[in-house]
Amino acid sequence: MKVLVVGSGYVGLVTGACLADIGVEVCCIDIDENKINNLNKGILPIYEPGLETIVKRNVEGKRLSFSTSLAANIENVGAIFIAVGTPPGEDGSADMRYVLAVAKEIGNCIKKYAVVITKSTVPVGSSEKVRAAINEGLQSNNQTTTFDVVSNPEFLKEGAAIKDFMSPDRIVVGIDSERAKETMDTLYKPFLLNGYRILYMDIPSAEMTKYAANAMLATRISFMNEIANLCEIVGANITHVRAGIGSDPRIGKKFLYAGVGYGGSCFPKDVKALVKTGKDNGYNLQLLEAVEHINDAQKKVLFKKITRHFDNDIKGKTIAVWGLSFKPNTDDIREAPAFVLIEDLLKAGAIVKVFDPIAMQEAKKELGEKVTWCRDVYETTQDAGAIALVTEWNEFRLPNWQLIKANMQTAVVFDGRNIYDDVFLHKAGYCYYGIGQ
Ligand SMILES: NC(=O)C1=CN([C@@H]2O[C@H](COP(=O)(O)OP(=O)(O)OC[C@H]3O[C@@H](n4cnc5c(N)ncnc54)[C@H](O)[C@@H]3O)[C@@H](O)[C@H]2O)C=CC1
Ligand SMILES: O=C(O)[C@H]1O[C@H](OP(=O)(O)OP(=O)(O)OC[C@H]2O[C@@H](n3ccc(=O)[nH]c3=O)[C@H](O)[C@@H]2O)[C@H](O)[C@@H](O)[C@@H]1O
């Protein structure tokens, strides 16, 4: 089957590359000419472990191509994935403009039955809007081509996207036609070697499942951050508490790490969008409003600890910030907690030296000359009064603490992800602050 993937960002590229890798003929479309030109030269717009190899293999195998034109590539296509962005609008709702523009374009040029699959994260009711936009395109061209719409939200995590796509826990498919189900079975069954995990359901339930999943995960994180903050006040340790509650299988071990708040392109925007969907329907999602407020406050926790340690005077002090991406193994800096910390440090008059193994190029676009860009963690600590660990990259886990201490004016570590052993660092002569301990 020939497939189009519209939107060659994170989700579009991973979807296109993974489908090509099982033998499907895929063309990835994007309106960003620069992105497509680069992809045609083998330059990827994102850093994602393993993706470059798969893209290269399938381009060479002539199963994967890139283009700016949907119309020029639509002939004999059996399925079209819509994987464009749905950023937050000013009122927090998901901005559907890009999805609907693609739907209309599909209506303008589709000549043969195809299944139109929404992979972008979209609010309940959006698939009907997609259907209407395709029909609008068809009518304005006096066409009567038949098509089906399907909701197929994506659950991949950045940094582990290939594994998540190739070996998914589940594939959620919202559907209202048997013919479309055949297409979805054909495309997805090859990925389900370890059992049958396509969950078919009605379209609104599939759309809601995506938001409910992200909102649940965000809730767990805010919950743990609140408990961590209370642990600090009452003298408990969140690391022990996490182990204690996580070993109950009803709770589970994953996604219980307290830290500096969740970031990324999805949790913040999807929680906001779900709250807005509630409001639009006369329902106040109080829990999720609290989840968002707690997260905003948590992004300020390291700054508060730093200023408290230095008696509210960090003017002229150098602070070494380790990690800029919103989590390790990605260069994505969207809503990354590091930027909230850096802005607060700069406002308070601190000198900020930063290092990230992958995200520096992206971060430079945001921060310009406001901070000192360093080649490694050691350079950040030259004359520094403190280290603030924000992103838990592997290479930050066991640096040469002796060397670092010799560089620093005062040996203080603020560990925003609880990756260091406080006893070990105390012995090494450091003053250590974690989260919730
Ligand atoms: N990034 C992630 O890890 C995940 C994202 N999602 C959802 O998937 C959707 C896409 O997210 P990302 O891939 O991160 O976005 P992105 O911003 O990386 O990529 C979107 C791409 O769509 C292109 N585009 C916009 N309008 C277009 C049009 N009319 N025709 C062709 N291309 C067009 C843009 O140029 C851009 O390259 C969002 O709804 C997001 O919530 C879902 C799961 C994971
Ligand atoms: O809809 C999406 O886009 C995706 O959003 C998240 O994936 P992602 O944003 O890539 O990253 P996560 O690994 O979920 O981390 C999100 C944030 O939560 C933080 N986090 C995560 C786990 C934890 O225990 N504690 C914690 O603070 C991370 O540091 C990061 O800032 C979901 O995990 C994916 O399933 C979903 O498909």
From TrEMBL:
PROSITE patterns: PROKAR_LIPOPROTEIN. Keywords: NAD, Oxidoreductase. NAD(+) binds at residues 30, 35, 86, 121, 158, 269, 334. Gene3D superfamilies: Cytochrome c1, transmembrane anchor, C-terminal, NAD(P)-binding Rossmann-like Domain. GO terms for biological process: polysaccharide biosynthetic process; UDP-glucuronate biosynthetic process. Its EC number is 1.1.1.22. It comes from the Bacteria. The active site is at residue 266. One of its GO terms (molecular function) is NAD binding. The keyword Transport does not apply. Catalyzes the conversion of UDP-glucose into UDP-glucuronate, one of the precursors of teichuronic acid. PANTHER family: UDP-GLUCOSE 6-DEHYDROGENASE TUAD (PTHR43750). Belongs to the UDP-glucose/GDP-mannose dehydrogenase family. This is UDP-glucose 6-dehydrogenase. It comes from Arachidicoccus soli. The lineage of its organism: Bacteria, Pseudomonadati, Bacteroidota, Chitinophagia, Chitinophagales.
